[in-house]
Write a structure and sequence with these properties.
It is a single chain. The protein is an alpha+beta fold. The protein has a domain of 117 residues: Gamma-B Crystallin, domain 1 (Sandwich). Strands 1, 2, 3, 4, 5, 6, 7, 8 and 9 form a nine-stranded antiparallel beta sheet that branches. Strand 6 and strand 7 form a beta hairpin. The N and C termini lie far apart (79 Å). Keywords: Signal. This is Secreted protein.
Length: 168
């Protein structure tokens, strides 16, 4: 009968020692300076994911946004915001035709698409497009249905599309 008591005593002592050792090692680590392999703090910069690859493939700059307006494949579904631009550097099978999905009641996307000439609303959202023509920036309301001409599509000089904003 003495063996179980001795095992219990050793087990309790071992657990206490382990707890004390763990606590002291935690205390030592908590006050230590960060090492070189410490990841940077998580800060959202709202940059568009995959923008470098999209620029290489489609020759448009998707800069930043709230994630509620995203570039998708044209023809993949209905109710898309569509853009046409003269873009011979676009390597898509339908160059210069870009489609965006607005997946929330509101959305925001900063982009840079030179030689944009018309936009088609998605039938659901009120869309405002910010464009630049000859160094002057202006905001153009985009019809919910039907195409809206911008830049050359509206009979003016070529435009660069700078921003899309959607609201319900």
């Amino acid at each position: 009968m003495r063996t179980p008591a001795r095992i219990t005593t050793v087990a309790v002592a071992g657990a206490a020692l382990a707890a004390t050792g763990s606590a002291s090692s935690l205390t030592a680590t908590a006050g230590a300076a960060p090492t070189d392999d410490t990841p940077p703090p998580i800060v959202e910069d709202y940059s568009y994911p995959g923008a470098a690859q999209i620029f290489q493939d489609r020759a448009i700059k998707l800069i930043s946004g709230d994630g509620h307006i995203t570039l998708i494949t044209c023809g993949s579904q209905t109710g898309l915001l569509e853009l046409h631009a003269y873009n011979s550097a676009d390597h898509d099978r339908d160059p210069g035709h870009y489609c965006f999905k607005v997946n929330a009641p509101t959305g925001y996307l900063r982009l840079e698409v030179p030689n944009a000439y018309q936009l088609l609303g998605d039938n659901q959202h009120t869309i405002q497009a910010t464009i630049e023509i000859n160094g002057q920036t202006s905001t153009v309301p985009i019809a919910k249905t039907g195409w809206t001409g911008i830049g050359e599509g509206a009979g003016t000089d070529p435009s660069t599309l700078l921003e899309l904003r959607a609201s319900a």
